[in-house]
Amino acid sequence: MANQIEWVALSVFVFFFALVTVMGFFAARWKSGPVSAHLDQWGLGGRQFGIWVTWFLVGGDFYTAYTVIAVPALVYAVGAYGFFALPYTIIVYPFVFAVMPLLWKQAHANGHVTAADVVHGTYHSRGLELAVAITGMVATMPYIALQLIGMSVTIKTMGLKGDLPIIAAFIILALYTYSSGLRAPALIAFVKDIMIYIVVLVAIVVVPAKLGGYGVVFAAANDAFATKGGLTGLTLKPSQMLPYASLALGSALAAFMYPHTLTGIFASKSADTIRKNAILLPAYTLLLGLIALLGYMAYAAKIAVPTPNDVVPALFQALFPSWFAGFAFSAIAIGALVPAAVMSIGAANLFTRNVWKSYVNPAISHAGEAAVAKITSLVVKLGALAFILFLPTQYALDLQLLGGLWILQTFPALVFGLFTRWFRAEGLLLGWAAGIIWGSWTAWSNGLKPLASIELGGASYMFYVGLGALILNVVVAVVVTVIVGLISPNRTSVTARS
Amino acid sequence: MWMLLLVPFIGLLWVPFYNFTEPSLFGFPFFYWYQLAWVPISSLLIWLVYRSRTPDEAP
Fold first, then answer.
1. Rounded mean pLDDT, A342-361
2. Which CATH number goes with the domain that contains A327?
């Protein structure tokens, strides 16, 4: 790793960072609307984003900077198993196509801003609304913290030491999110995604060319895994198959339960915008699959790194001229800004609508909602920054893993109501609690590994904890709904939609 | 037509379908190019379902 400052790379970096900062503040005037007058304006960009804005926005905030760092790092460390991100980000789109337009229609017709709004609109249960809102906020915080990790890895590679650069970058981000709302990340996403596309297209052509082709890359990785003892490799071991598939499925079901991805959905102009995006967004998945292979290219390039997370920056630094490395690092760092901004907006919307409005000030005006959300977004970002500065990095990683498990438990409450009114709020709430408690306990007792095992017919099967917790969640929801139905057959107020 | 949306789930979640290295393509072992190939195939399937459905009434 570099010990002196890489001036060329750093200059390129500072240039692009300054560019997006100006864009972030300018964004308040883009697609003009009174940003501070209504939460729909600040928190959802006016609900007017068409196909291309939504494509860049959702692409920019679903495929985060951390993805660019962490997926190749995982593939570098564990081989084929780390590739589960690819099936995950493919099967998510048939799901998005089938479900998210229905969710959008429900939200649009009733002026809902958050997932918890939709749940309250369907079941009229303050308890279930609060459960969904708190899960969303808690799951989002470590995710924001991870974006900071992605950013700090690239900044350190350029030779800048200490926490000051990351603090400065984050304060700038917090300020333009405050003033422009969702319009800022939507506009910056254009720059970020075009930069990432350039970097990856160059990398997947130039790097193998320099190293001797993809055959050489895979062979080098294969040799390296064989040397390590052959526990992992270019294909999955039999014991890894079920974990691989269940992680892919569980992650796909969880992906669009997060406040930041849902914010992108609710901000769309129409249900058709979402359907077309389900067809177009997989372009990013192709990119992700190719990025993942950077992990193998590191073996062919004979790069040794202290931790797997340094693989991508080290690879770019070793194989590219300084100016292009700087360009790539700015793409990754800006790539962290977009999701971090959308995540803080999603969490702020939840707090404003489902905690502040529901419990503190039900009579709040539209402008008042926007004001509360703006302040909350600042608090959320400062919280994430403090998290990274004062706690070990591992906490953020562990909590993000648990966050995926937790957010998946909001799936029945949010999705089932789009198709059937059979479930009762009591059942969904108890199912949610059972899933969260069992899942957290199991992950915790396994040393925060995402896998649990089950004994069936003498054989032991490993699978993703979150998916197991979801199954338990649904079973409890069904059983309790049946019991509650026997006790009180007349459901109250369910037909009265607000 | 909506059943087409389930096809990627089957193709990708049943790992024994593709957990081997041969035949390779452009240096990519089967495991990798098979999964990458599902990206355009899934888009195509979703597009087919999209075309077959009745459009929303104008908002």
1. 88
2. 1.20.1730.10
- Helix (H) or strand (E) segment spanning residue B10: helix B7-13
CA dist A328 and A195 (Å) reads: 8
B23 touches A: beta carbon within 8 Å: no
Structure-model confidence comparison of residues B47 and A29, the more confident one: B47
Asked if the model's pLDDT at residue A92 lies above 90, the reply is yes
Could you give the CA distance from residue A407 to residue A398 in angstroms, rounded to a whole number? 14
Cβ-nearest to B15 among A236, A279, A293: A236
Which of B3, B5, B12, B44 would you mutate first to test chain A, the one with the most A CBs within 10 A? B12
Lowest mean pLDDT among A23-32, A67-76, A292-301, A343-352: A23-32
How far, in Å, CA of A253 to CA of A217, rounded? 33
Determine contact, residues A35/A350, Cβ cutoff 8 Å. Answer: no
> pLDDT at residue A416 above 70?
yes
Quote the DSSP letter at residue A159. T
Is the pLDDT higher at A185 or at A130? A130
Select from A116, A118, A189, A174 the least CA-distant residue to A144.
Answer: A174
Q: What is the 3-state composition of chain A as percent helix, strand, coil, each rounded to the nearest 5?
A: 80, 5, 20
Q: How far apart are CA A14 and CA A27, in angstroms?
A: 20
Chain centroid offset of residue A315 CA: 25
Residues A71 and A361: their CA atoms lie apart, in Å, by 43
Number of domains in chain A: 1
Residues A419-472: tens digit of each pLDDT: 988 888 889 999 999 999 999 898 888 877 788 777 777 777 888 888 999 999
In a domain, A319, yes or no: yes
Task: From chain A, pick out residues whose CB is under 8 angstroms from the CB of B48.
Answer: none
What phi-psi label fits residue A181: left (phi over 0), alpha (psi between -120 and 50 degrees) or beta? left
Is residue A27 a part of any domain in this protein?
yes
pLDDT tens digits for range A233-249: 888 888 888 889 998 99
The domain locations on chain B are 2-52
Domain range for residue A330?
Answer: 8-413
Report if residue A72 sits inside a domain. Answer: yes
Q: How far is B42 from chain A (nearest CA, A)?
A: 7
pLDDT single digits (tens) A265-280: 998 888 888 999 989 9
ipTM of the complex: 0.91
CA pair distance A120, A413, nearest whole angstrom: 10
- The DSSP code sequence of A427-466 is HHHHHHHHHHHHHHHHHHHTTS-SEEEEEETTEEEEEEHH
Residues of A in contact with B35 (CB under 8 A): 83, 86-87, 90, 289
Q: Which residues partner with B43 through β-bridges?
A: none
- Segment A366-382, tens digit of pLDDT: 888 888 888 888 888 88
